[in-house]
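Students often ask what a holo structure prediction actually looks like on paper. The answer is less mysterious than it sounds. You provide the chain, you provide the ligand, and the output is a string of discrete structure tokens encoding the 3D arrangement of the protein together with guanosine-5'-triphosphate.
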Amino acid sequence: MPSLAPGACGGCAQHRTDSLLRLGLNPDKWDILIALAGNPNVGKSTVFNALTGLRQHTGNWPGKTIVRAEGAFAHEGKRLKLVDLPGTYSLQAGSADEEVARDFILFGRPDVTVVVVDATRLERNLNLVLQILDITDRVVVYLNLVDEARRHGIAVDAARLEQRLGVPVVSGVARERVGIDDLLGAAYRVATGQRETRPYRLEELPGNVEGTVAALAGTVAQAFPQVPNARWVALRLLNADDAVVEAVRSGELGQLGDEPPPAEDAPPPAQGVRDHVLETARRLRWELPPDFQDALSERIFAAARSLAAAVRMQGLKRARFDFDRTLDRLLTSRTFGFPLMLAVLAVVFWITIEGANVPSGMLAALLIDQAHPWLHGLAAAAGLPWWLSGFLLDGVYLATAWVVAVMLPPMAIFFPLFTLLEDFGYLPRVAFNLDSLFRAAGAHGKQALTMCMGFGCNAAGVVSTRVIDSPRERLIAIITNNFSLCNGRWPTQILVATIFIGALAPAHLAGAVSAAAVVGIALLGILTMFVVSWLLSRTVLRGEATSFSLELPPYRPPRVLQTLYTSVIDRTLIVLWRAVVFAIPAGAVIWLVSNIEVGGATLAAHGVSWLNPFGLLIGLNGVILLAYIVAIPANEIIIPTVLMLTVLTAGAAGTAPGPGVMFELDSMEATGGLLRAGGWTLLTAVNLMLFSLLHNPCSTTIYTIYKETRSAGWTALSTLLPVAIGVAVCFLVTQVWRLVAA
Amino acid sequence: MVEPGFALAVFAGLCLLLAALLWPERGLLPRWLQFARLSERVRLEDALKHVFACRQEQQACTVDSLAGHLAVPSGEAAALLTRLARMGLLRMEPDGPALTAEGARSAVRIVRIHRLWERYLADRTGVPPAKWHDQAERMEHALSTEQADALDARLGRPAWDPHGDPIPDASGSMPPAPGIGLPAATPGRAVEIVHMEDEPPQIYDALLADGLVLGGRLEIVERSDEGVRVRAGGRDWTIDPVAARNVNVRELGPDAPVEAPTATLRDARPGERVRVVDISRACQGPQRRRLLDLGVVKGAEIVPELVSAAGDPVAYSIQGALVALRSQQAAWIRVDRNGAGARPEVA
Ligand SMILES: Nc1nc2c(ncn2[C@@H]2O[C@H](COP(=O)(O)OP(=O)(O)OP(=O)(O)O)[C@@H](O)[C@H]2O)c(=O)[nH]1
Ligand SMILES: [Mg+2]
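The corresponding structure tokens follow.
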């Protein structure tokens, strides 16, 4: 039995340690390393969660996992490390995520690779399995989604598949944990060498390639006798695969064979021999026909097809009513497609707005009306000086409390709703329907997915643009993601819409009218996104839309409880925590600027009077602009800042506890009254809503954009462009409004 | 408060000013950049490339041919050659200028960047073929050797450019352009197009407009003084002698099938089961590989299932999965509509 320690020989242990470090893993923390690979959206993350007990995000659309996730657990006294790889269709390493998966399987040398396979789409999944079997012997296949396959009238004979593939095959339902224990057992046995595998290999290559590959494979086998599959290496070299070329050049290739482990004293082949291999590859490359890839793919699919035909069991009856197709026909129909999409959007917003009202009020009553005076009493009893208790309680505490009261309820409603839609499989249909618009704008169809993610959080939306593999279109998606109205900006929208626009309608319609106004702003954001994408692809990011393929996954009944749990705990609390972190210093700054006096007036008053002329020109006022500047780190604390500063300048001090204090007025009317006293009109409200949609992204998003683009220029453009658009739009609305009103 | 009418007028004025400054291609800034690009260095590099090309094609290389190629007066062309000679890149021989070893290296470097960039445009962008050459002409002077290497790695070290020319590798070695000229092909034989010269652009555009693509198949009907008569896709036409010289082909075996008029996936009706014949060579690089990975391979069965709300894209059932493709992609996939027949009804 091979040793369990990573690597059985000094030299190769060192090699493996190096490549693991290069891949970003610390190699001393486990005994067995397991990689989880498979096509997109086959349930890899679900298997990962089932094995590790972690809660890695799952979602019913291809490309949900874009960065590798890791988890550890114990089994039979051994420490096991599991790595969840991004889904890939093949290992030909076309796009970045495929490269991650390929490099990991090849150079991370996992002790076993678990390939998750969708039982319904066997041919396509076996295509990947066969490619992985070409690289490594230590493979276990997990035949997932057999419940779904059964619904579609498909059953697979796992025993026969195991016999054909030569590696263990475990069938199951990852969501219900069916087969997970068997999978773990099989993986463990393969990893420890208790179970020998005899993997299926595609030996023969298409005629026009065979000669060239065989010639090179001979050279490779001579130079690296311990490499298990010289033909595969030869093919990769002929493809000028940089990672493999580098492995030959450095001699690392000799260490990659997983069995038998090379003897300790087997040195890598001499420099000259390695160079000869590369030289031969370079020369032979020109002899390959340009379309030899086609022939290779055909060959693999032909094998996959015959395997699938042999193991698929006939005679199962397919459900009479094809739910998926019927629903798809409706959701993508010419007549209903777009209206249904709008309706879903409106309903989600409406539930969020209506549902968040009551808990928001309750939280405000608890944290602000009750806890705040109580804390003040406590501070007075402890004898804190006024400036310290003011700074801590009126500045820091109130800002935090306000952010929690305003943000927690809408997020706790929106994120789960959104996750349910995501889990059900609706998002890819949105992308499908909107694609022609994106194409007309010169953008990528998957931008619809990233746009939807942006409705939750723009930073998350920017990260999700990694599903777009064309760099130009990815930049467009990054720059325009900010036009998706994110969670942090809704409280502003909802409050202003309720006070100024809902109030225009009769009382029983007020809720619906304000919801409509917010939906209108969200739609305006989408429209802006299209226009800006179009402009970008006509100017700085000139180019035509590239092709795109989008897999529409089957509808899957969402798991409501699990969804609630993960979306509340992970997404909501993480976003909230960030908001709180930013609110604390902002609260402190607000308190300071409104309490430090220079030349007879506070800093805040100076700022407001200085910004006021420009504010009025674009239909806002100095208070709002100052609030934006103070709140640059986090959009979500705009409204409290505005209110506080309004109190200060309007001199309506009677309603407020003191200068620099954030507060929640007991009722909407009171807030509205205060704002009107500060000179607000319907025009101000409309402009505030517009400006809150069209301004710079929050600091986290800006930082994320920088991390994703690695370019100060694009980051600056993504930051400044929305502000410029916002100022221009507010200015135009204001001036035209005044022209018409006059 | 500012008078709204006045404010709007000022705003409009500002917008006009910005547009005049930044408008793509016609604005002052883009024009200035364009002008700055046509520097001395660009002309020197173009001259180098010209000498390299005509030496390779064994055509006469003179001051006049250079002047014609660069569209400059012959005095200036002569001055360019003198400067290149002084830089040690070129020497004058009895039959005209020839490159030194150093000069050939520089020229190959430029050719490499040019072809890499064309490959990039073809693979990673939606830029139409007719525009590849012009954009690459500009980039070949702008990219450094390191940038070119990075691009090469990112593209997966391609061997051929989208016109069928070999891309020199980092060490500068490359084989000659493949195939034989179309005028040399035997009448009655089927041939495959392996290279289409992209210069001059007028001829290339005309070839594209005729429906010729790299990897496409033709049947040679006859050769005459008017050109080469070819047949493909169910029609025949004559390619004039000048254009024909810009096309290289490979003769196929005597019984090789010439492309019958085929339908594409775009023609398939919803619910109709079709069988893949192949993917057009107009689709290259990662786009092609992605289609292959999804299972669009010869013989695979495809059924159009859903048309999106706006009519494009369409979702197809491919290898058991539902995959949406834009109509432009569907048009690349050639299918056999008779082989498979209608979908069996659900039990
Ligand atoms: N019915 C059923 N659904 C499942 C099963 N396993 C996973 N799912 C669902 O399939 C969808 C995709 O699961 P994920 O675990 O996110 O898939 P993934 O392979 O990680 O996907 P990517 O990260 O996009 O590659 C989710 O909606 C899961 O709830 C199963 O055994 N049966
Ligand atoms: Mg995943």
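DSSP finds twelve helices and 14 strands in chain B.
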